[in-house]
Amino acid sequence: MTLSDADGLLLVGCGKMGGALLAGWLTGANPPPAVAIVEPAAAGVAAFRGRPGISIHADAAALPAGLAPAAVIFAVKPQGMETVVPAYRRFAAASVFLSIAAGRTIGFFESHLGARAAIIRAMPNTPAAIGRGITVACPNAQVGAAQRALCTRLLTAAGEIAWIADEALLDPVTAVSGTGPAYVFLLVECLAEAGEKAGLPAELAMRLARATVAGAGELLHRSTEPAATLRQNVTSPKGTTAAALDVLMAEDGLERLMTRAVAAATKRARDLAG
User: Fold this and answer.
1) Buried b (16+ CB within 10 A) or exposed e, 112-121
2) Which residue, 11, 10, 8, is CA-closest to 20?
3) SS3 per residue for the chain
4) What's this model's pTM, rounded to 2 decimal places?
């Protein structure tokens, strides 16, 4: 079965991540035949309004009575899930529920959708918008093989996917890959600012930082070498790169800072679970 064989999708929330996933589905090799979107904010759905197969609704009450989606995807902020999720319990008999909300556990969804509901908790990231995301997913015991296969296709339309059995791992996954793109964008900002302080014009510094990080990422993507090997390949003994890495790899350098950042994000993900 391909994505086009499904009965359609119901996307609840079309913000940054929901919109990124939807863009990936629509531009993939097998776009879904129909997507119903529940999103009260007009700005979130502006890019999808009027497209074939797309219907937009302000809330769950506005959905057609006979709607029978193969999958219901929750892309709502974790803080809003408590009031949003119960309205979709009517789809539990035939749909698989796929959540991309940080912190909200499978148990949380079972308490609102019923113990027999098929639920997959997943954590994608925003490069899904260009088909270069990565998602880690964890199913509950009610998810059937066909439902897992459908969600695999939905998620791989936006990039790579890894499945895990231990739901507890999703908190550090969130901290590494879910929020990880923000770390990379901050690196670009910091690199450009450092270039300015070294004497470069602001526009050139930002251009260099963006192109360098994007190019290095693509090199890493295409290479089979470990990241450490690629780093070593750039580093000549007693050269400029080595001088910079002496700072970044010092005891109080980037590794310790990143460890603290990931730990903070992991704790926040656990806190969101309550």
Assistant:
1) bbeeebbbbb
2) 11
3) CCHHHCCCEEEECCCHHHHHHHHHHHHCCCCCCCEEEECCCHHHHCCCCCCCCEEEECCHHHCCCCCCCCEEEECCCHHHHHHHHHHHHHHCCCCEEEECCCCCCHHHHHHHHCCCCEEEEEECCHHHHHCCEEEEEEECCCCCHHHHHHHHHHHHCCEEEEECCCHHHHHHHHHHHHCHHHHHHHHHHHHHHHHHHCCCCHHHHHHHHHHHHHHHHHHHHHCCCCHHHHHHHHCCCCCHHHHHHHHHCCCCCHHHHHHHHHHHHHHHHHHHHC
4) 0.87
CA distance 261 to 265: 6
10-residue mean pLDDT series, the chain (274 residues):
61 89 81 90 86 92 91 90 93 94 90 96 89 94 96 89 96 94 98 98 98 97 97 95 96 96 93 75
